[in-house]
Amino acid sequence: MIESQMLKGVIEGVILHIIKNNQTYGYELVEELKRNGFYTMTEGTVYPILKRLNQKGLILGAYKKSEIGPRRKYYYIT
């Protein structure tokens, strides 16, 4: 099986697991994935997955004020 196909099969579950353990925002999620071996993850890959999970009703997002910079959209499990 091609590596990208294997990644498609597990990445949603991995993202849900990370969010379940800690509310997070997109960039922080990408960094967590990289720390855990998903070295090729980018925001361009993660944000469409977050949108899809949100549309499926598995996660919700809410904007929160950031101590530095603009507000961030944090995701959490429904």
Describe this structure in words.
The protein is α+β, with helices and mostly antiparallel strands and 78 residues long. The protein contains three helices and three strands; from the N terminus they run αβααββ. Helix 2 packs across helix 3. The radius of gyration is 13 Å and the shape is globular. The protein starts with a helix and ends with a strand.
Short description:
This protein is α+β, with helices and mostly antiparallel strands and 78 residues long.
What is the general shape?
A: globular
Counting helices, strands and paired strands, the structural category is alpha+beta
The sequence of SSEs as H and E is HEHHEE
Distance between the termini: 32 Å
Helix segment tally: 3
Radius of gyration computed on alpha carbons: 13 Å
How many strand units? 3
**How big a fraction of the residues is strand?**
15-25%
Mean residue pLDDT: 89
Main beta-sheet annotation: 3 strands, antiparallel
Taking pLDDT < 50 over at least 5 consecutive residues as the criterion, the unreliable ranges are none
- Helix content range of the residues, please? 40-55%
- Give, in spatial order, the strands making up the sheet with the most strands: 1-3-2
